[in-house]
Amino acid sequence: MGSLEEDRLVQMVHDFIESESSPTPFPNSSSEFHSINHQAKVSTLQEILGTGIEPECKVLGRVLKHMRNKMDSEKTTVLKKWLVMKLKMDGFNASICHTSCVTSLGCPAGDYEYIEIVSKTENDCPLRLIVDIDFKSQFELARPTKSYKDLVDTLPSIFVGSENKLMKIISVLCFAAKQSLRDRGLHVPPWRTSTYMESKWLSGCTKVTAPTTISHTRDDREAKNGGHGFSIWVPPVVKPKTRNLVGGSGLSRQFSKMGINCC
């Protein structure tokens, strides 16, 4: 009997030593790490989007006012020209920028349009602001992970900001897009790199101006033409007809023969 109790005691000591020497596992430690990392990225993106200088806020307010009833409209060149015209009427130096990317290093050729506003800071230094009315869709992915989708949902549909702010946003989103694609087992295409994305807004561009004159009946015509009425009707110039008085009338010639001045 004593031998049996002794064997049990030895087994209990052995089990205790084994439990103390084995490291305590941390369940879901990998998922917790990814969750913390994801929250940090969302907070960083929110901080970037939340910072803005006075010219950015001023332009954003006017853009949102003009686009209030056109958020669901197709983001065509005609709509961009209409918005540029409105911003010019507000006193902004606005124009449409057209960029083209040639095929290189596996990247396909592509064209892109956005609105540029050249403003000035308090120190009277030139400031280039980028206005994109279809900003969020440029970062959407097929089959995104939940983490990446949360980042894209944080982006505004309409972006107004400086080149520096845009570069920070592209850096965060492109890094997250690479992780999302790899987690899905997909190849990272060249057009999802930060270099390619920056070329949409930060490469050399061709500027397209929009008309600034507007008639008093433009609002009525916009309602009839789907909101895009740019043409201005100008009445034709009517020239008065002139009479050929060379030689005078027959009656005046008779008076002149009679020596009577009819004038």
UniProtKB/TrEMBL annotation:
It comes from the Eukaryota. This is Uncharacterized protein. It comes from Erythroxylum novogranatense.
